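Support reply, case 0932

Customer input (verbatim):
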Amino acid sequence: METGGRPSTVQVILLATSSAATAILYSIYRQKLQNVQTLKGATRVTLDEDLQKVLMEAPGKCIPYAVIEGVVRAVKETLSSQFVESCKGVIQRLSLKEHKMVWNRTTHLWNDYEKIIHQRTNTVPFDLVPGDGDGDGVQTAVRVLKPLDATELSLETVYEKFHPAVQSFTDVIGHYISGERPKGMQETEEMLKIGVAITGVGELVLDNKTIKLQPPKSGMQYHLSSLDFDTLLQKQESRLKLWKILTIIFGMATCASLFFILRRQYRHHKEKQRLQRMQEEFRETQARLRQEMATEGDEVLKNACVICLTNIKSCVFLECGHVCSCDECYQALPPPKRCPICREGISRVVPLYNS
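Our regenerated output:
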């Protein structure tokens, strides 16, 4: 705290940072809470022959936010894995990721660093069909639109291989000088395979006898997850708890910083009031002492020696009888000694005692 009672720069920065972090975390928490509440309120429908009838009776032939579970089936062609035989799917994601060690000049440690060099995603149209139906018969199918827009898109890793970097001695020396040590390349293939059970959460519409699952409107989340609905909901709630805990922690840090600053300011204010009271008491005491000294000063001047004006009159001169001098001044009078008042000669001196 500065002498003026204002918070220091460090305290202001700490309070502003914690307040901003709390506001951001609370905003994210509110958004996650709204998503969880919306997910809880989603309409659960069954993928069977009655689904089309349900949508016909719905307003606008649409259920704004529905939960449906089914098995993935390709509409026409499928995607084949580039590395695994007899592995077919409807979504394929190929990734090439670079792994290296980077020297941190602050901590003086080597840290892992990952960077995606290349990534390509291939998709083909696919449906969700009942899991217990006959694949050769006529089934109720739900066409899945824009699967890559899903917040929760479950892809299975079907191939993963790490290619370590080959380095010569001169390369190692150069890497230490540059502060970057390549570890290698990681090649990954992820797929949404045919026959996988999927839980879809989104807008369900009936369009020319075709049932479609598409991203919902009004900012609601779109899910295509391999988890069942209850597990998916628990996963979202656990994430919500994490954001809630972070919000509470940063909120408490903000309150603690604010309390510390206000407490210091309150103590500074009380100390200032105490000093003001002491100054007022000191001024009152000075005024009272001046008044007392002025009163006593009049009396002192009346009894003061007429020669030195300092000591009290302490002797009587005879024969004139004047009381006007102290003993020290009487002794200092030049001979012949004469009364300072009437200039009559002093025959003898009688001491004067004040009681």
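We compared this against your earlier run and they match. Two observations from our side: The mean pLDDT is 86. The chain has three domains: 1-40+229-301, 44-227, 315-351. Please reopen the case if you see a mismatch on your end.
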